[in-house]
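Structural prep section.
Before we set up the soaks we want a predicted structure of the protein with zinc ion in place, mainly to decide which crystallisation condition to try first. Input record follows.
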Amino acid sequence: MKIEFVDEAIESLRIPLLVVDSFEGSAASTGTAEHLPATTRKMLEELQSSGELTGKTFECTLIHNPPGLAASRLLVVGMGKRARFRTADLVRIAGAAARFARNKRIHDFAWLTLGRGRTAEGIERIAEGVVLADYDADKYRADRSVDKRVDRVTLVANGAPFTDAERDAGERGRIIAEAANFTRDLVNEPSNNLPPRELARHAQEMAAKFGLECKILGKEEILAKKMGAIWAVAQGSEEEPRVIVLRYSPPQAPAAPVIGLIGKGVTFDTGGISIKPADKMDEMKTDMAGGATMMGVMQAIAQLKPNIRVTAVIPSAENMPSGKSYRPGDVITSMSGKTIEVLNTDAEGRLLLADALAYARELGCTVLIDAATLTGAVMIALGNFVSGVFGTSQEWVDRVLSSAKAVGEKMWQLPVDDEFRDLYKSSIADIANTGGRYGGAITAAMFVGEFAGDTPWVHLDIAGTRWSSDEKPYLAKGPTGTPVRTLVHLVTRNSS
Ligand code: BES
Ligand code: MN
Ligand code: ZN
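Run finished without errors. Recording the tokens verbatim:
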């Protein structure tokens, strides 16, 4: 998709569709609609008084041959109450407008950007919103929606010329949302087409395309590095594990921080010997969403080129039951030297992360941020729309939360507290891999944190947010790409 900018007045713009936004309430509190010519505004006021146009969030009102405009159609998209509006809402508002246009087979539209939406940040959010909206998880369908794709979105300044910062923001938004769509493609991919070796191949291909360093550890290297926890999870599968390392290190960047991005890459999670019930097991093809997130983040970073060092570590394995599987009761030795008693082979994500965190520290990361579809418990606690945030460094937790807020991804901090440590004590090893049902998301997070040592660490449990089980006005059903945008924002904001 192309994001373009024009400075001229809207009246004369020949375009299949012009989008303006409108707040809920009185005629005085309209959004960019208030910059329309008087004749057009008069018509909107009539629609308002008849109750057809209210400005409620995501409401789409389409007008053909709008008076006073050269555009063939005008779309008024609702933004809700002005007092509650935040710039981050533009992602979803732009998404709703874009999906409305797609459904009408309109491939080329303009957006009037003046007033509240007119900041570089607002433009970045609009660009993200339309690119995220222009995605369907329909690769394997004969009736896939290629003919719906948006080719071009033109931002219209209406005589108040765009600044360079605003133009750059449009490009940034496109890059970031396309990276999130790359993540979504990987999450959507069925496990028969995406075993660990394929995930690694996608990483290599992306790294070659965008100029990142990429190193893949295979079975031999994993065993040589004594990554006993990763190996334990992988050993039940015919598919060999991989550890994917992606590196972005601009020579002029300061030596520290080195941000470590660790993502769980379980390409299919049957639960292993502690096997999961059949119902919804298909959803476990998405258990590599954390890893795919970090691949998307690295793709965006490679293009945005912030002045900061970033290393992604993605441990990838398939969790299968077989005659070669690890078993409940087994004791394994992790790369860090800590021994782990496996009480449940379905708590495999934390095992992969244990070795990956140790490896990221060995590679010189000075901050560790992991994302993982780690627990069903986080969905019980926070539902499907909010990711769980945990960490030992309140400073970095706050940075993550503030980036999430800025880009419109919902996150909520849950506690880590030493009192929980007793729950995952083992009677025979240093630590056990489960801590019981109560506080399940917390004990899982804390287990991972045990391998961060004294390195500041933040953990994102995205089990609930990786996937949307129904279509939204602004987003297709399926993989969401969360939390790619938050992490790109975090990395670029902390660059020097
Ligand atoms: N991948 C799952 C968590 C999950 C569940 C992700 C639902 C997305 C949707 C994880 O490996 C798992 O199985 N966790 C167990 C841990 C338990 C055995 C301690 C869980 O949450 O039930
Ligand atoms: Mn599991
Ligand atoms: Zn899992």
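Observations: Residues 92 and 474 are 5 Å apart (CA to CA).
Flagged for discussion at group meeting.
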